[in-house]
Specification:
By secondary structure, the chain is α+β, with helices and mostly antiparallel strands. It contains 26 helices and 30 strands. α8 packs across α9 (586-597).
Length: 1020
């Protein structure tokens, strides 16, 4: 069997007429032409894979099937080519004769060709295009089509021209699970404002057979269809100009791909019959609806949708709206499922799914809300694991409807777990998709962190039903209007519900959101919340980062405390009511808040300008505090780490902590609007970011810092959890970036020896882990480890293993136990290592092991137990039918081994789909890269297999960061820079810049702090 796999000179897949293509995961191929002769370099400009395919490899059934189809296509195309060549020769002779007679050679422009976009020109009649996922024949059409790499077409650019406005789509799709393709038809009601012979619409990896404009009973078929693969456009050429109201009707075909974007395929092994089951699912955010149907694929082109799906009668078919009808087809073997009309919404929110699912459901009732039922779907056999998510969904939906005073507009709400899913979840209106770990709870394996993750992700996506779905950002440059609010409300909703009060989620918000936001925004390669440079799909994908989520959610929380709850929520209700079913920009939100908070136009304009300074400027301030006298403080602000002269309006929350327990002391708001400011009537120990609600860091003078450190040691109860966590993190980060000596920060955190709160410890451990990674080869590292063992000893004794009498068992205590025991394993506290290994082997022999203990226990066993422990854990993984949460733990733990060959084996697993799904590759990479013994291995493996990671459906940015963030040498910095100059990362340009900056910062830290840290540690 001969497989075809070629590339153009630009490195893009190319599918010429004479070549058949099959992606050969984990195999290589020998290239042949149709006569079974090896291809010469000149045949393909030297851009091809010339390895030899081994017929003896044990291929997956899917791959064997692809190769068989491939060979059949080779034989078939031989016949097609003979006919096509004859036709072409005749056509050439006729054209030449006409040209000789008329002297007019313009007819060459009307030559027709067809195929999937990106293919070379080929005869359209009775000829299908080929791709790695698509081996079926395409139907013929009287329209002709051609492709362009980006130079052709009447219109180029990343945005649609704006002359054709859709209002309604009627779509029918029919997936083929044998060929992994789908066929479709659609009608789009449009209004064309300018008469034109060309319509520009988004389409990529689609073969459009026909495109026809209907108006007043008259049809006009496009005479030619061309594609621009760079800008992902299809150009519909008409012989006469069209304009006004009408409809565009399409027939088309596409790829049911395996890239976790567009309309794609996923699979799982059934818990019921142990057979592989296939799913067709969607992921359209941000620019991939165009892979499923021709559309105007920008968020401001909202429309309603009527969707029908053709599916096997034994499969579940779902879409955004409730099912309207199901009609038997093909003698009852298939069915056409039609859904109600959706609300007005953006294309990226459309969803349709077909597969073997089963649901748990519950009725929903909340006043006049149209929503009547909530369902959680899972692959059949796992549905009962959706009960917890169902409970959370009903609770937060009621809270959102009541708080925002806007009812959910669809009669049903579905949440569904998809086995292969690139993101954590996706907020498709009425049909929300999730990774299994973000929706399902296996009670036998679920830790406190698993429960919290499901609750948080469910609440996040359901917040999007209002922020993103009902009211949508006008363009991806202001993605924060969607993601920042979902990040804020995932905590606001749950924290307001009694069932989750114990979780202390606003405290955890600091480590989950605020601190990651600080970390990214401290880099010069960061970007503002409103980022006008965003245009291309790659640049859009880079916006899904800690700025759009973590910083934006933190700034929203700061504004909540700045305005007060009454004005904050009144402004949001006005914003939702004004712009529902529409699109917005940041100023629309800010004006709504300002109107709710002020009574005059001038005051409102001032407030809008102040809010804009936060959304349009990169970075954040550091406020320096100096004691001017016993009653006054002098404050100054400057951009944290950035040299540019920037200034922000800073809502300071000021309170005195001397002698007054935190619950009895309320902070006062002081708005700092200048670069320097004095505040009076502030004696004693003073905090200027009380509750850590402001998105800024605070640098206290040494006298004030010493007084705060003393108070923390003697009276930690004078500070609430957020304040202890914020002070700790501030001191360590200020030292990291040179605002003070690291020895000062390490002395400040002495109070941790008696600290028992999870959030405070997490705030410290993240920064201490950074120091640990850079110091591991320093002469004083043993002293650093000794310091950490001393800090951890009391809290290890306090938290225990959870099965002692009177052991702390609250939700935060369970989080603390996992974090502290993991740290104790890392810093090699002997008693914890020994107990972990004992518990591991007892678990392997059948004893119970609490889910909260498993990650630290697995890590200890792998670090201490060598290959025997490694093999035992991987056997448990594959033979004990573990759930998705347990898989995640194991993948994170495997990188803890100290055996080089086992680290290499782990890396190989990351690209072997029988071990690791593509969505989880980064988890495995991170585990190995965080091990000092695995850093070089992970970086080398990533480079050697770059093509498998460099896909837009895969989080390449995250992978780049995990394999480079531990480097600190100039050599590695140059190596990283040179590699990505030669191998551009698709959607990872910002990640590369941030990684290079991080490496430089690491080197700077060592140069500046090594001597100071070692001197301090050796003095202990």
């Amino acid at each position: 069997i001969k497989a075809r796999h070629t590339y153009t000179a630009e490195g893009q897949p190319s599918f010429p007429l004479l070549l058949c293509i099959a992606h050969m995961d984990n195999t290589s191929v020998e290239l042949h032409n149709l006569e079974d002769e090896p291809l010469e370099d000149d045949d393909l400009n030297g851009q091809y894979d010339n390895d030899i395919y081994d017929d003896g490899l044990d291929l997956l059934p899917e791959t064997k099937g692809q190769m068989t189809l491939c060979m059949e296509r080779v034989k078939r195309n031989k016949r097609v080519v003979l006919v096509a060549v004859g036709v072409i020769l005749v056509a050439v002779v006729v054209i030449a004769m006409i040209a000789m007679i008329s002297g007019d050679d313009s007819s060459s422009d009307s030559s027709s060709s067809s195929g999937m976009q990106g293919s070379d020109s080929s005869s359209h009649s009775d000829q299908s295009s080929s791709s790695s996922q698509d081996d079926s024949s395409a139907s013929s059409s009287s329209s002709s089509s051609s492709s362009s790499s980006g130079d052709g077409g009447p219109y180029t650019g990343w945005r649609l021209p704006g002359t054709v406005i859709p209002s309604h789509y009627l779509i029918e799709l029919n997936p083929d699970f044998d060929a992994f393709t789908f066929s479709g038809s659609s009608t789009v009601n449009v209004s064309i404002s300018e008469a034109s012979t060309v319509v520009v619409i988004h389409a990529i990896e689609l073969e459009i057979f026909t495109a026809t404009f209907y108006q007043n009973g008259v049809s006009t078929r496009a005479s030619r269809i061309a594609y621009n693969t760079e800008y992902e456009f299809a150009y519909l050429y008409f012989d006469t100009p069209i304009s006004g109201a009408g409809s565009l009707r399409f027939t088309f075909k596409g790829i049911l791909n395996n890239q976790m974007r567009g309309f794609y395929r996923s699979s799982f092994v059934s818990e019921v019959d142990n057979e592989t089951k296939w799913i067709a699912s969607t992921q359209f955010e941000s620019t991939d609806a165009r892979r499923a149907f021709p559309c105007f694929d920008e968020p401001n082109y909202k429309a309603t949708f009527d969707i029908s799906l053709i599916a096997s009668v034994d499969l579940v078919a779902l879409s955004n709206a409730p099912e309207k009808s199901s009609v038997p087809l093909d003698g009852g073997k298939q069915k056409r499922v039609t859904f109600d009309t959706t609300p007005m919404m953006s294309t990226y929110l459309v969803a349709f799914i077909i597969g073997p699912f089963t649901q748990v459901e519950a009725p929903y009732s909340n006043g006049a809300s149209p929503l009547h039922k909530v369902r959680v779907f899972a692959p059949t056999g796992l549905q009962e694991q959706g009960v917890f998510a169902l409970t959370v969904a009903k609770q937060v939906m009621t809270w959102y409807e009541n708080t925002l005073q806007q009812n959910f507009p669809i009669a049903k709400l579905d949440l569904i777990a998809i086995p292969d899913f690139a993101a954590g979840a996706m907020e498709n209106w009425g049909l929300v998709t999730y990774r299994q770990t973000a929706l399902l709870i296996n009670q036998a394996e679920a830790s406190a962190s698993n429960y919290q993750r499901v609750a948080i992700v469910v609440a996040h996506e359901l917040a999007h039903q209002w922020f993103g779905d009902l009211v949508t950002t006008g363009w991806w440059s202001s993605l924060w209007l969607n993601e920042g609010f979902a990040t804020f409300f995932e905590v606001a909703s749950l924290a307001a519900l009694p069932d989750y009060d114990e979780w202390a989620l606003w405290d955890q918000f600091l480590v989950d959101q605020q601190q990651p936001g600080f970390s990214t925004d401290a880099l010069a390669s960061s970007h503002p919340m409103d980022n006008p440079s965003v245009l291309s799909p790659d640049s859009i994908s880079e916006m899904f980062d800690d700025i759009s989520y973590a910083k934006s959610g933190s700034v929203i929380r700061m504004i909540q405390h700045w305005l007060g709850d009454a004005a904050f929520y009144a402004g949001l209700r006005s914003y939702q009511a004004t712009y529902k079913y529409g699109n917005t920009q940041s100023t629309d939100l800010f004006r709504a808040w300002a109107a709710a908070a002020t009574s005059t136009p001038d005051a409102a304009n001032t407030l809008v300008a102040q809010f804009l300074s936060w959304s349009t400027q990169i970075g954040f301030p550091v406020v320096s505090v100096t004691r001017a006298n016993s009653n006054s403080l002098d404050l100054s602000q400057q951009p944290f780490t950035l040299a540019k002269d920037r200034q922000w309006p800073i809502p300071l929350m000021v309170r005195t902590v001397s002698g007054v327990p935190a619950p009895s002391s309320s902070p006062s708001l002081t708005l700092m609007t200048t670069s320097q400011q004095r505040i009076n009537s502030v004696p004693g120990n003073v905090l200027v970011n009380s509750g850590q609600t402001g998105f800024f860091r605070v640098h206290y003078d040494q006298t004030s810092l010493n007084a705060l450190a003393t108070a923390l040691l003697q009276h930690p109860e004078y500070f609430n959890v957020s304040e202890r966590a914020g002070l700790t993190n501030d001191q360590l980060v200020l030292a990291r970036f040179g605002y003070q000596k690291t020895s000062v920060a390490l002395a400040f955190i002495d109070f941790l020896a008696n600290e028992h709160d999870y959030t405070v410890w997490e705030s410290a451990l993240g920064q201490l882990s950074y120091m640990d990674s850079l110091m591991v080869d320093m002469d004083c590292y043993a002293s650093f480890r000794g310091m950490m063992q001393g800090l951890l000893s009391n809290v290890v004794a306090y938290i225990g293993w959870g099965d002692e009498p009177n052991a702390p068992v609250s939700h935060p205590d369970q989080l603390l136990r996992e974090a502290i025991l993991s740290a104790a394993v890392h810093y090699r506290i002997p008693s914890v290592l020994a107990e972990s290994v004992t518990r591991f082997w007892a678990f392997i022999d059948g004893a119970e092991l609490a889910p909260d203990l498993r990650l630290p226990v697995y890590r200890a066993a792998l670090a201490e137990g060598g290959e025997e422990a490694y093999d035992a854990l991987t056997k448990h993984w594959k033979e004990d039918s573990v759930g998705a949460a347990e898989e995640q733990r194991i993948m994170r733990a495997l990188g803890s081994t100290r055996e080089r060959h086992l680290l290499e084996r782990t890396l190989r697993m990351s690209i072997q789909p029988e071990w690791v799904r593509p969505q989880d590759r980064r988890t495995v990479l991170a585990g190995v890269a965080s091990n000092p013994l695995g850093r070089e291995l992970a970086w080398a493996f990533f480079r050697a297999n770059f093509d498998q990671f460099n896909e837009r459906g895969f989080s390449i940015g995250g992978a780049i960061k995990v394999v480079t963030s531990h480097f600190s040498s100039t050599f590695r910095e140059n190596e990283v820079k040179e590699f990505f100059e030669k191998n551009p990362a698709s959607g990872g340009e910002t990640a590369v810049s941030q990684s290079l900056e991080t490496i430089a910062n690491n080197r700077q830290w060592l140069e500046t702090n090594a001597e100071d840290v070692c001197t301090y540690l050796l003095s202990l």
